[in-house]
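Researcher: Here's a chain I'd like modeled. Treat it as a single chain, no partners, no ligands.
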Amino acid sequence: MVKLYDTGVYLVDGCQIIPDDNNAQAALKQAKGTVPSKEEARRGTMAAGIIAAHNSGTEENLRIKFDSLTSHDITYVGIIQTARASGMTEFPIPYVLTNCHNSLCAVGGTINEDDHMFALSAAKKYGGIYVPTNMAVIHSYNREMMSGCGRMILGSDSHTRYGALGTMAVGEGGGELAKQLLKRTYDMPRPGVIAIYLEGAPATGVGPQDVALSIIGKVYANGYVKNKVMEFVGPGVKNLPVEFRNGIDVMTTETTCWSSIWVTDEKVKDYFTIHGRPEAYKELNPADVAYYDGCVYVDLSKVECTIAMPMHPSYTYTIRELKENAKDILKMVEDRANSQIAKTAHMDLMSKLHADGEIYVDQGIVAGCSGGTFDNVCAVADILDGKSCGNGTFKMSVYPGSMPAYLELIKNGSIAKIAGAGAIIRECFCGPCFGAGDTPANGEFSIRHTTRNFPNREGSKPGEGQMSGVALMDARSIAATAINGGRLTAATDLDVNYTNPKYYFDKSVYDKRVYDGFGKAQPDAELKFGPNIKDWPEIPALTEDLLVKVVSYITDPVTTTDELIPSGETSSYRSNPLRLAEFALSRKDPAYVGKAKAVHELELIRESGSCPAKETELTAVYDKIKTIPGFADVHPRQIGIGSTIFANKPGDGSAREQAASCQRVLGAWANLAKEYATKRYRSNLINWGMIPFLVEDPEAFQLDDYIFFPGIRKAIVEKSDAIKGYVIGNEVREITVSLGTLTDDERQIILDGCLINYYRG
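Model: Modeled as a single isolated chain. Structure tokens:
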């Protein structure tokens, strides 16, 4: 059971919840004898204490410096290139470069391995930590080697979450990591903190994914924890093994929270001792009285085996509920999915409901930072032991999270049990999480213990008529389904002897392969550039006036970063800004790139000193602008020209900055949105010099309209709350937009055109 409080709460002695209502003061006095102010009690959260230790700003406006950074091979090239162009000479704090995403080196020729060699040369030149290909999933390595109680880690992967190990970790776009590399700060208003109060213990067969999905299903749509810290407290925490906690924690990204933190105990202490880092442990608890902006109450004993249906982790049902209402739910999910994807493809879920009333799936995957943990894989092995995955269409793959874990799974016999049942053991690789590796056949239905099931995250291409579906489940229920030949089965329906073998960590695997150059920068070392690694193109500063054309108009309730720039094989081009940009919105709006390029050509004409209005559609546009009072004498060369997109709520999901940078290198100068799904995406827009406009009435303009923003530069400098614009359609219509909260640095980045210009200037 998961319940949300509709008020803030006081937490007393880590176990008593007192709602912030008319009776709160009396209840606090009875419980503690004294009544702290609400502001004092806010300082009693674990999050507040950790943030304060890393903050050089005010209590309300944070300026944070992190203890370490981490990136993988989809993001680190762009970050290092940005920091280099901005004047970086060495990595000032530990920076871990893992190779767990673009490690299929056959895709795109040599370019993926070229990126890896670039990273190794950068680690030598600037003093970084290089984790070779498939040695570990990014978050597995950071849990094992970089986490520590009270620390803060910033990563360029959205699932940078190590809260269960006492570490506040944040997933952000590459621009924010570049700032840290340049010894600048991460700036934001103080986030709210939400208590996640755990009570009881999970039933046998219920796993961390079941608990995580149950929480996500309750808090995603209503934004209950959006851009806030999730602080896990309560007596139920002690009933969870550390890897179980890690599995819940890493999925908190899908709630759109900012970060997470858990109370720590002897189990966490044992974790660090096992990993050879006992000094990384300290006990973390909230103060005797701590105030939270809300509370999610979770009775772990009532959590059931759960499934998140296509195409979002918040589309949750218990497996029991799904099976009891299979026809209705499958039809509803199928219809919703087909309304989101290209009309050239079709998701077919109804065919998975067989004549016997059972649901059959075609594939099971256990992988990555959420699924590939030691405990999960051991549980899968216990379920599969002596059984068979069958000889039909169902197939299964398991990806351990790190080579030390893989080695121990070999030693304790788990790998033999899994392979003996007909499942495939694969390398430490994040591919199934983002659409590269184990792509199902067209029309198939895959169940996965991974982090996301967004459109195309399984690797299909709806624009080319290819479509498969992914549901998220816990590793235990996936294994239960496997031994039934693909018949959807909850792990609680089985009688299994879970052996729970002890984990022994062998650090020598890393000692023999990982390059640790922190503090040992070699300035004379040369960077190794493959032919696909390109510098960022020159990006202009913001002009006094701005004209943007709406080249994509997306009406879906939420637009994911995967729809803005697809995952999968396109990731091979992420070191080549212009080539990658060719894929922007390709699976959501195939016309986007051509339209954006056409507008960009007009801007290039203007920048060259010529008039962009000659023999173009702008002739009529400028004629209408001249009818606006005060602009009768405006010259086309004075007005910057760019493209923009509208989406109701863009940016859900990945931290990848390319969702913004691809628009920017194609000439975009802004986004228009009713709201932004995550802080990460909005920050990415800002760091690439794109204006994050907020609009209350998107019906005031439409696709292919131009919008003129006179005095936009002045409005940003003067911190105007409302900005006037003019829609240049069949007639000129006035609109008002806003920018939301911007720091002074963020305003200057937009004015300068991008983060690189800001630091270079």
